[in-house]
């Protein structure tokens, strides 16, 4: 266990407020931390086949020490688990375990497990509590906070889901020790995204060396990055929980392009969500610069920094046989942000200055895509 001070943030949502703990050794202490938010001393821990062998025993022992009875369910790892089939399997398994309204689910894993378990919790018995124990960088800085839960369908990502806030989030920085480098990179894209949206100081900090330290495993830097991102997201979610006021929509920077790339690569291992977000951010800045909204030098900075960290910046770097801008634009039409048939983009006036842009000419989007495909 590393020597990190645990920080606690609160997502302020009135009676549904909850804490985010960020620190080391939190899975070992999970029982004592979870106990105060339970309605009965019983939880079901759901994880995936990569994470369960690493952390399930540690978590269940800690629960037992705190007098909490736990059962476990282990699902296959990967984006393909976030679908109707596994949702059904999970719900049937939960019902077979005779869960009650006061039973709490614990999602132990990355964003896939967090999103799936959160959605199952939202609809099981018309809604039960759940707790997030995020174990990827991406889930610690983004998906475990804010209550967006969902599954993917063949029409696109996250199109079936619910807003359902967790009761507690435990982000154990030590869990990142076992995370493959590619997943660290994917999470990094979501961290950098906060800088690009509204936190130029965070972006400069990353650019000035913290980014590389984070990727290399510096725990102080990782903890600070998780804290800054969660503080940012907690603020945004408290002010615009259901993405109706606009602020929360900004968190989708890079996602309109990114989701289209993910849809085209089939939500598989070819392109991870965070990797898609990195390319999507590069494209959002390229489109902003092309429209004269943002300096080209900022768009260049974004591309340069992601590349320096080891992230791909163009679809041409992904080994798909054929990219087609019209097919990608078709995927964008399935985005949740489509309004009256028009695609909404998050664009920027510069680093840290994102805004919502509607009525962007498809020809401009196609030009940016064509250039990226040919890069
Ligand atoms: P993931 O859950 O698939 O985890 C990535 C991989 O790492 C998996 O193979 C997993 O088994 C493995 N893993 C997890 N923790 C590990 C650890 N500590 N050590 C070793 N291996 C570990 O992917 P992710 O990147 O965490 O999440 C992506 C998902 O999150 C996408 O479905 C995306 O749509 C969703 N998401 C949701 C929100 C939201 O607000 N709800 C925000 C961003 C992303
Ligand atoms: N990841 C975007 C959101 O939570 O709103």
For the structure shown, list the relevant keywords.
binds glycine, 13 helices, 375 residues, four-stranded parallel sheet, Rossmann fold, Dehydroquinate synthase-like, alpha domain, alpha/beta, 17% strand, globular, 46% helix
Spans of at least 5 consecutive residues whose pLDDT stays below 50 are: none
Ligands and ions found: nicotinamide-adenine-dinucleotide, glycine
Shape: globular
| Helix proportion | 40-55%
**H/E series:** EEHEHEHEHEHEEEHHHHHHHEEH
Give the C-level CATH assignment of the largest domain. Mainly Alpha
Q: Which structural class matches the secondary elements?
A: alpha/beta
Main-sheet strand order equals: 4-3-5-6
- Tell me the CATH superfamily of the largest domain: Dehydroquinate synthase-like - alpha domain
Distance between the termini: 44 Å
Q: In total, how many beta strands? A: 11
CATH architecture of the largest domain: Up-down Bundle
Computed over alpha carbons, the radius of gyration is: 20 Å
- What's the mean pLDDT score? 95
As for the CATH topology of the largest domain, it is Dehydroquinate synthase-like, alpha domain
Q: Helical region count?
A: 13
Q: Please describe the biggest sheet, giving its number of strands, its sense, and whether it closes into a barrel.
A: 4 strands, parallel
